[in-house]
Amino acid sequence: MQMRFDGLLGFPGGFVDRRYWSLEDGLNRVLGLGLGCVRLTEADYLCSHLTEGPHRVVAHFYARQLTLEELHTIEISAVHSRDHGLEVMGMVRVPLYTQKDRMGGLPNFLANSFVGTAKFQLLFALKILNMVPEEKLAEAVAATQKPKKSAIDQAAGAT
């Protein structure tokens, strides 16, 4: 995932004008600007989601399994892209584990702010690609929905 300029987490991508590009050609053009070395095809398509409102957007989500070497190459390319430091603050790896305290790792990550459908897309991909066992994924989501004590409440309880 990427940390965006506005502090929200999201996936690389952009808008595609279907009059000039297929979804995959447009996506690869945008990814080529930001990541350089990954190419997606129709076989990498996972889902689409329509965002209603004044600016209707259909977000198409693609995922591809990478080797560790390919991931390192993408992370290096991302730092040298033209958008790095402007639109994108950097790449972020999603922790696929939960620590013994039941909050560290994935639950804490899911407590971040995500742009648009990015959190839905992340959870969908983790489930459909069997990257996190379904019960562990449900526990991580549930942990983010519990009310957290504020720092003031925690400090008051410690005294």
UniProtKB/TrEMBL annotation:
InterPro entries, alphabetized: NUDIX_hydrolase-like_dom_sf, NudT16
User: What organism does the UniProt record list as the source?
Assistant: Trogon melanurus (Black-tailed trogon)
Pfam families tied to this protein: Nudt16-like
Can you list the GO cellular component terms from the UniProt entry? nucleus
GO molecular function annotations of the record: snoRNA binding
Species lineage: Eukaryota, Metazoa, Chordata, Craniata, Vertebrata
Protein localization: Nucleus
On whether Nucleus is a keyword of this UniProt record, the answer is: yes
**Name of the protein in its database record:** TIRR protein
Give the matching CDD domains. Answer: NUDIX_U8_SnoRNA_DE_Nudt16
Q: Which UniProt keywords apply?
A: Nucleus, RNA-binding
